[in-house]
Amino acid sequence: MSNTLLSTQPYKGTRDFYPAEMRFRNWFFGKIRETLERSAYEEYNAPMVEELELYIAKSGEEIAKKQTYNFTDRGDRQLAIRPEMTPSVARMVAGKMNELNMPLKWFSIPNMYRYERPQRGRLREFWQLNVDIFGCDGFEADMDVIESAINVLRGFGADETMFKVHINNRRFFNDIICAISGADAEGAKLVSKVVDKKNKIPRDVYEKEMRELGLSDEQILRIDALYNMSVEEATALCPDSVGAKELSDLFALLGDTGLDKYCVFDFGIIRGLDYYTGTVFEVFDESPENNRAMFGGGRYDNLVGLFVKNAKVSGVGYGMGDVTLENFLVTHNLVPDFTEGNTKVLVARFNDVPYKEYIGLTASLREAGITSALYLGTKKFGKQIDYAFKEGYSHIVIMGGSELESGTVKVKNLNSREETEVKISSLPDFFQ
Amino acid sequence: MSNTLLSTQPYKGTRDFYPAEMRFRNWFFGKIRETLERSAYEEYNAPMVEELELYIAKSGEEIAKKQTYNFTDRGDRQLAIRPEMTPSVARMVAGKMNELNMPLKWFSIPNMYRYERPQRGRLREFWQLNVDIFGCDGFEADMDVIESAINVLRGFGADETMFKVHINNRRFFNDIICAISGADAEGAKLVSKVVDKKNKIPRDVYEKEMRELGLSDEQILRIDALYNMSVEEATALCPDSVGAKELSDLFALLGDTGLDKYCVFDFGIIRGLDYYTGTVFEVFDESPENNRAMFGGGRYDNLVGLFVKNAKVSGVGYGMGDVTLENFLVTHNLVPDFTEGNTKVLVARFNDVPYKEYIGLTASLREAGITSALYLGTKKFGKQIDYAFKEGYSHIVIMGGSELESGTVKVKNLNSREETEVKISSLPDFFQ
C-alpha cells in the first residue's frame, strides 16, 4: 500500500450518481417503464459481460475489439463488457425460441460501455433503452414500436412541437434508387452507399462518386428532389415497390390514428446499409439549439441466425441513450421539481427525552407510510433545522421533554414556516 | 465471420433475466427501495468500472487482482469491474466531503462482478444492496442501520421466526479477550485471529494454537463459555469496557423499542479482523434447511482516509446479495403471484375491422391508465386466446365487425371465463 492519496474522480467518460442525480434517474427510468408497461411491453436484462465472439460475429473483429472493453479470463475465454444490447437479446431469444410466445414485446434499460472519446451526448458508460418487437413480420409491429417511442416522449410531457419522428423505408429506398439510376440491385447498392453519406461529404465529392457509378447529372438531381417530397409524391415514383406500399400504408395509418402530427417522411433516413430491411426511423429534437437525431431504429430480418440454423425471427425496435434523452428533457424544461409536494419528516432530537421515544415516534410514522427519519446525533436544534432544509425535508417534528409530557408535539412546515401543535397520537393522521 | 453457430448460454456464473425473472427483480428491488426511502435513505450509484488501484489500496494487490475482472485500457490505465461498492462510495463521499450534509443515509443496489467459482448463493455477476450511514459516530447510526435491515426483511413479510440479527461488538470482543487471556492489546490481537477461525478449524488444532499463544485450558474454556452467554452475562465480565457499554446500551434500546425479538447476542460474530471497529452483526436465516448467515455488516472508522489527508468520516452499514435474499424469500414462501389481481387487456384482432379502430380502442384504454395491447398479427382467434393466456393477460376484448357496428364489445375474463358485453365508450370505466 502506498501513501499517495487516490483520486476522487470517476474513470474518464463515466459518472457518479449522487442522491440528487439518482432521484432524477429513478424518475426518468420509472416514467419509461410505466409508459412501456402500460402497452404490455415486458422488461428483460442480460449479463453485463458477454463472450467477445458475440460482437465479432455481428460487427467484425476490428470494430468489436476497438469499440469494446475486452479481456481474457483465466479460463482463456475472450470477454467484453456489452457495448450494445442486440447481441444479448438475440442470444436470449435464440435460447428459448420454442418456449417463448411470439410476438414478443420486450424492453430493457441496461448500462453499457463503449471505448470512445467522451463528448457531449456520448460517454463511455451509458444506459440505453432498448425496445423491440420480435416475431411479427407485419406493419403492425412497426406501428406499435413507433407509437411506443412517441408515447415514451409524450409520457415526459413532450408534444409535437418538441420532437418529430422521421420515417423512411429501406426497401423503398433501394427500389427508388434502382428506378432512377436504372441499375440492377447490385449496382443500386453501390449507389446507396454514396447516397448514405451524402450529408457527410462535400457536394463535389458526392457528385463525383455518383458520376463514377454511371449516374447522369439529371439522375443526381432527381435523387436530390426526393428529399423535399411528401410521402405521396415519393411513393408515386415507384408504384410497384413493396417498400413504397409499406411506407404509404404506414403513413395512412398514422394519419387515421392522429399520430401523423408527430411524424414526417424523410428520404435522408437510411441508418447504415446492411442491417435494416424495411421501416427505418429517427427521432429528432425540434428545438433550434439542439436540432438533431436523438435516437432511431427500424426493422431487421434475421435476429437469431448466428445462433440457430435455418431459423428466422424478425425484429423491429430502437435504442435510446440516457444522456441524449436527459439533454432533451432539460432543453424543453420537462424535468419537474422532485421535492415539491413530497412529505418527508425529520424528527428533531433533544437530550431530555429518552431515545426510545423518538424511535417509537418515527416508527409509527413509517408504519403509516410516511417518509420520516430521526435526526442522528446530538447537535443543537438550529443545526438540525439546517440539516432538514439541506436534505429536502418538508417538515420537522419538535418533541422536547415538555412536549412529551403534554402529549403534544410541534410540527414546523419548512416551506411555509408555519408551526402547528399536534397530539402525538394523531401525528400520522396529520401528515396523511 | 465464421459459420459456426454461437452458444446461447450466458457467460459462466451470470444470469439472463427473461420477463418472468425480471418481474420478480423489479418487485424485489422496488420493495427494498420503498422500505429504505420511507426511512429517508437516499439512493446513489457509481460507475461499473473503477481504477484497479482503488481495490488494491483497500485489499492489497494479490486479492484485488485475483478477485476482480481487471484489464488495461488504451491509455494504460489499470481498470476493474467493481467487485464491491465500498471503495466507490468512499471515493464519492471523499470527493464532496465539504458539500455533503452529514450524517448521510445512503443506499445503492449495484451489479458487480467477482472472479470466483460459481456455487449455490454465489455467482460471478450479482447485485448487492449496500446500506450505510456516514458521519455519525454514535450508537444512533448503529441502531438505525440494524432497524433498516429488519425493516427490509419485514417489508417482504418476514417475521422473527424466519430470521435473526446476531450482534456483537469488536471493541468488546478485543477487551474480553484481553481480560481472559491477560495479554496486552497486541497479544489479544493474535488470540483474536485464532478465535475468529474457531468454527472453521478442527477443535484440536484450535486448542493447540491457543496454547501456543500461552493460554491455559481454563482460559480456553472461559472463552468457550462466552458463546452461550446472554449479553448481560457477557458484558458483566468486563464492566469497564467501552465496547461492553456500547453493546448493552444497544440491546437495552432494542428491548425498549420491541426490536429485541429480531435480535440475539452472538459472541461468534467477528467479521474479519482489521476493518470493523465497533458493532458488528450478521443476519441469519432461521429455516432449518437453510440456516446460515445471509448478510452482515458493522461499524468501521476511516472511510475516506485513502482519498483525503487527515480526514475522518466513520461509517456503519451492510451489504446484502440478491441471490441470498432471493433464496430466503423462496424458502419462506414470501414471493407473491405477480399476475394475481392485475388488469392486463389484450384487444383481439379480426380482419373485418379497420386496423385504426383497434389502435384507437387500445390507445383509449392506455389513456385511462389500463395496461393493454393489441394482438400483433393475423392469427385465428383461438391462437390469440392462447397467446393471451400464456402472456398473463387478464382479459381479452372482442371487437369484430358486428360488435363495431353495434358499438358494443365482448370482454372475456380469462381467469373466471366470464363474458360481459360492454359499450365501447364505457370500456375504460369497465376496467377501472
Number of domains of chain A: 2
Task: Give the number of helices of chain A.
Answer: 16
Kindly identify the CATH topology of the largest domain in chain A: BirA Bifunctional Protein, domain 2
Oligomer: homodimer
Distance between the termini of chain A: 53 Å
Whole-number average pLDDT of chain A? 94
Number of strands of chain A: 17
Specify the biggest β-sheet of chain A. 9 strands, mixed
CATH level 1 class label of the largest domain in chain A: Alpha Beta
The CATH architecture classification of the largest domain in chain A is 2-Layer Sandwich
Q: What features would you describe in this structure?
A:
- The structure is a homodimer of 432-residue chains.
- With 432 residues, chain A is α+β, with helices and mostly antiparallel strands.
- Chain A has two domains: 19-171 and 249-331, 2-Layer Sandwich (BirA Bifunctional Protein, domain 2), CATH 3.30.930.10; 344-431, 3-Layer(aba) Sandwich (Rossmann fold), CATH 3.40.50.
- Chain A is 39% helix and 20% strand.
- In chain A, strands 1, 5, 6, 7, 8, 9, 10, 11 and 12 form a nine-stranded mixed β-sheet that branches.
- In chain A, α2 packs across α3.
- The mean pLDDT of chain A is 94.
